[in-house]
Amino acid sequence: MANEATVRYSDEDLKEFESLIQEKLDKAKVELKYIKETLNKTGEYTLDSGGPVKMLEDGADAAERESLTQLAARQQKFINQLESAMVRIKNKTYGVCVDTGKLISKERLRAVPHTMHSIEAKLAKNS
Predict the structure, then answer these.
(1) Taking CA 97 as the corner, what is the angle to CA 95 and CA 101, rounded to the nearest 5 degrees?
(2) CB of 94 closer than 8 Å to CB of 50
(3) Zinc finger (dksA C4-type) residue ranges (predicted)?
(4) Which one, of 122, 119, 91, 87, lies nearest residue 106 by Cα?
(5) pTM higher than 0.85, yes or no?
(6) Burial letters for 78-112: b for 16+ Cβ neighbours within 10 Å, e otherwise?
(7) Residue 47 carries which DSSP code?
(8) What are the extents of the domains in the chain?
(9) 11, 21, 24, 82: least CB-packed within 10 angstroms?
């Protein structure tokens, strides 16, 4: 039982990761806001009568809106993952692989701060 509490990052390490994640979270929220504003602007075109050229423009607009919608969804998912990482920091479970129970390397956490898997566990899943 005493061994369970020893597998975790120190409070100092957790503070470092918390500030890294908060920075990424702030940036991601700004980007999501921009994407949503751009999406709203693409829907503001007035409908006027046009021939084949207008139909092509409508198709391009629809494709752009679809692309922006997918981008917004991916960004929202990223924000949710970062927010979950913040909860793990508060719970002091951040940086522990959910599969192996071992610490995830600091290098991996710096590169992918929302990960819950060590590189070993990730590679094992993909093979």
Answers:
(1) 110
(2) no
(3) 97-121
(4) 119
(5) no
(6) bbebbeebbebbeeeebbbbeeeeebbeeebbeee
(7) P
(8) 10-92, 95-127
(9) 11
